[in-house]
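Worked Example 4.2. Consider the chain below.
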Amino acid sequence: MKLRFRDNSLRLRVNQREVTSLAAGNALEGTVRFPNDSRFIYTLEPNAKIEPEASFDGGRIRITAPLREVKAWAHGESLGLYFDLPADDATTLRVAIEKDLECVDTAAEERDPDAFPRSGTKC
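Applying the procedure from the previous section yields the following structure tokens:
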């Protein structure tokens, strides 16, 4: 799973194996380890709730998405799930969960063999 930030938005990209796991109800987790044993953890979890949620606490970002929507997305043609969540009185957190497409314009060792096929376009 890849995590990307831009202003008040975050994007999670997941490959075919990870999408299958999410659709089965399993959570995904990524960790970035820093010197002095510090860690930044990010999780994506399907759940039975109707609404998505996002939280940040103790160095962990936690995104939850409705399992029903995850299953439909996993088995459909749509590239992603997109949510706008209230962050405070005047701000919205934009969350994108997207299928990670294969990169055809990069070194072979950097390619993810489980990425979704891309037809003719470059990274």
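The chain has a mean pLDDT of 89. The two ends are 17 Å apart (CA to CA). Compare this with Example 4.1 before moving on.
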